[in-house]
């Protein structure tokens, strides 16, 4: 069964998914939404779950906190999204620390993939979701 990774920002939602063996994470989409309309994001996740027809074991939701672990505005956005999504789906949602995932994604895309800023902007959120899934798998599969 697969894992679905989400990096929710204030304007975009990066989405990634693993293969069925949970070995490789791949970026699916940089989903752009506006006006803090989280309902659109919930509907997007519901459509993806339908597309993968019961093959998603867990949703790994990036959970941003400050360096000291304190909540911030993005943390509260994630918690609001969780409260909207949870009652509408039958897949467990797991919070995963996402500190630095966007910085790591941007650095990789800039220095390793040699992409231009305009190209990075279009894919950094789904790359962040890939990093969230990779880090989750590393921390939970190598016990």
Question: Can you give a write-up of this model?
Answer:
It is a single chain. The protein has 143 residues and is α/β, with parallel strands linked by helices. Helices cover 45% and strands 24% of the residues. It is built from four helices and five strands. A five-stranded mixed β-sheet has the order 3-2-1-4-5, with helices on both faces. Helix 1 (38-51) crosses helix 2 (73-85) and helix 3 packs across helix 4. It starts with a strand and ends with a helix.
Number of strands: 5
The succession of helices and strands, N to C, reads EEEHEHEHH
Low-confidence stretches: none
Radius of gyration: 14 Å
Spatial order of the strands forming the largest sheet: 3-2-1-4-5
Largest sheet: 5 strands, mixed
Form type:
globular
Number of separate helices: 4
SS-derived structural category: alpha/beta
Task: Tell me, rounded to a whole number, the average pLDDT.
Answer: 88
Helix content: 40-55%
Topology:
Elements: E1 2-8, E2 12-18, E3 25-32, H1 38-51, E4 56-63, H2 73-85, E5 93-97, H3 101-112, H4 117-141
Parallel strand pairs: 1-4, 4-5
Antiparallel strand pairs: 1-2, 2-3
Helix pairs in contact: 1-2, 3-4
């Amino acid at each position: 069964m697969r894992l679905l990774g989400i990096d929710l920002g204030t304007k975009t939602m990066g989405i990634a998914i693993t293969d069925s063996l949970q070995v490789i994470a791949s970026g699916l989409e940089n989903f752009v939404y506006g006006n803090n309309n989280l309902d659109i994001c919930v509907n997007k996740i519901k459509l993806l779950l339908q597309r993968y027809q019961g093959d998603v074991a867990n949703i790994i939701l990036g959970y941003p906190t400050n360096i000291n672990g304190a909540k911030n505005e993005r943390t509260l956005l994630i918690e609001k999204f969780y409260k909207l999504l949870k009652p509408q789906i039958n897949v467990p949602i797991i919070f995963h620390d996402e500190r630095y995932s966007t910085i790591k994604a941007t650095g990789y895309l800039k220095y390793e993939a040699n992409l231009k800023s305009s190209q990075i902007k279009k894919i950094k959120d789904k790359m962040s979701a890939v990093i969230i899934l990779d880090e989750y798998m590393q921390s939970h599969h190598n016990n």
